[in-house]
Amino acid sequence: MTSVGQRIKGFLNSPQGRKMIDRGRRQAAKPGTQQKLRQFAERMSGRPSGR
Q1: How far apart are the first and last CA of the chain?
Q2: Which of 30, 32, 13, 31 is nearest to 21 (CA)?
Q3: Tens of pLDDT along 25-38?
Q4: Which residues contact 33 (CB under 8 A, 6 or more apart)?
Q5: How far apart are CA 22 and CA 24, in angstroms?
Q6: pLDDT at 51 over 70
Q7: Per-residue model confidence (pLDDT) at position 2
């Protein structure tokens, strides 16, 4: 039986997995996406939320 890690690695090396990786890289290169990720990281950094 294959481990979860081996199954993920196999998927990422498949044509479908490579397409998904390429799509993710294109999305990550967009300035709007980068701004959303920075805002999310700020929220998750542990600073008080003011609630």
Answers
A1: 48
A2: 13
A3: 999 999 999 999 99
A4: 27
A5: 5
A6: no
A7: 85
Cα–Cα dist 51/14, whole Å = 45
DSSP structure class, residue 14: S
Confidence of residue 1 (pLDDT cuts 50, 70, 90): confident
Rounded CA separation 38/45 (Å): 10
Structure tokens at 42: 């700020």
- Cα 32 to its chain centre, rounded Å, is 15
Identity of the amino acid at 4: V
CB 18 within 8 A of CB 12: yes
